[in-house]
Amino acid sequence: MSDLRDRAVALYDAFTHDHHDRRELLRRMTLLAGSAAAAEALIATIAASPAAAAIVAADDPRLIVDDFAREEAGAPAGGYVAMPRKPAGKLGAVLVIHENRGLTPHIRDVARRVALAGFRAIAPDFLAPQGGTPADEDKARTMIGTLDYDLALAQARALLARAAAQRGGTGRVGAVGFCWGGAFVNRLAVAAGDALACGVAYYGPAPAPAEATKVRSPLLLHYAGKDARVAQTGEPWVAALKAAGKPVEAFTYPGVDHAFNNDTSAERYDKAAADLAWGRTIAFLHRHLDARA
User: Fold this and answer.
1) Which of 9, 98, 189, 283 has the fewest CB atoms within 10 Å, counting from its CB?
2) What pLDDT is recorded for position 1?
3) How big is the CA angle at 123 (ends 119 and 127), to the nearest 5 degrees?
């Protein structure tokens, strides 16, 4: 059963990150599971569930939340903001960068978790120039594949500048991203210079090692022990950052899958690893974003 599970996760990972052909996914999963019904049931346990309960309710009275829509870098931009209703002091800001399914309810929930930890969380929708994140996750993945990456980076830099100037803030802005968003945080660290105070990437494919010399911000990188696809880029990236003398902390969590932090995926979520990584993430963000005496 363990081998079947691992093979099923690998098939789903290839679908979500490589070929995006659901019929091919179902065909190969059916061969693995023995029937179409068993294949669909297996896919459902691996895929993120849009109906999964939020960890922090959207109407949590401890928070102020809002959606925003405006123009950034000459194109439509949008997203979601969450912050403590009664902050204890000045707040550092954190961009919460979504996976390849866009600004989903899960990412909004993660933004609220970041806000409850004592930050102003800003979750951009980088599909806004294409009309915004659709409810259909397969369509969202297709849209991500045609996204103007340079525009997304320009909009992220504009959000960094806007957040740094926010009243009641510390003037420091970090970013945390997951999967596609983890890769984006790495690339933002290359592109943003000192404007990014720190970055946290969860299982995000890395840039070319030669880009490490351009990084100016401290990075915290989380990797899944069973995620060979991302490890192929992550290991050289970490080595290059260290060789260039860049402040980087990297952790690999043994025996867990890609997307181990996503609690809406019953099969891939690993609570122990997720809790450990989250504790490290929040401590890292406070260290680099809080007001200094």
Assistant:
1) 283
2) 53
3) 170
